[in-house]
Specification:
alpha+beta; Alpha-Beta Plaits; 8 helices; 4 strands; EC 2.7.4.6
Length: 153
């Protein structure tokens, strides 16, 4: 358990096109996570193939890359207590129909192929994804809310 754990969260093209960026960011801010990197980017197919390399053998891979390259994505890094695990819970199941109401996918999605967001599935994946999307690094700062969100140990 780490207060400085980081996770990579990406709002996919459907989330951007549906104007859900602010709502998704608000969920992480309201939960108490600290935004340490953010950019809007129209990723190249090559960049996306690198990001989704573990899915290359799947039959849906070409369609996934085409969809992800169809419009801009919002790439973000959030930092805080158990950011990877909690971030995944906040997003909900990959299949939105299996996501509970209250999760991002449970509230805003109906189909696996349009599930509006991606979140790192492990600390190791987060480190790789952050390095891929933010080679320049992230912003280091102390957030004024930290003592109000996290207790001293």
């Amino acid at each position: 358990m780490s207060f400085t754990e980081r996770t990579y969260i990406m709002i996919k093209p459907d989330g951007v096109q549906r104007n859900l960026v602010g709502k998704i960011i608000a969920r992480f801010e309201e939960r108490g996570y600290k935004l340490v990197a953010l950019k809007l980017v129209h990723a190249t197919p090559e960049h996306l193939e690198n990001h989704y390399a573990d899915l290359k053998s799947k039959s849906f891979f070409p369609g996934l890359i085409k969809y992800m390259a169809s419009g801009p994505v919002v790439a973000m890094v959030w930092q805080g207590l158990d950011a990877v695990k909690t971030g995944r819970v906040m997003l909900g199941a990959t299949n939105p129909l299996q996501s509970p109401v209250g999760s991002i996918r449970g509230d805003y999605c109906l189909a696996v192929g349009r599930n509006i967001c991606h979140g790192s599935d492990s600390v190791e994946s987060a480190e790789k994804e952050i390095a891929l999307w933010f080679p320049e690094g992230v912003v280091q700062y102390t957030h004024i809310q930290e003592p109000w969100v996290l207790e001293d140990n």
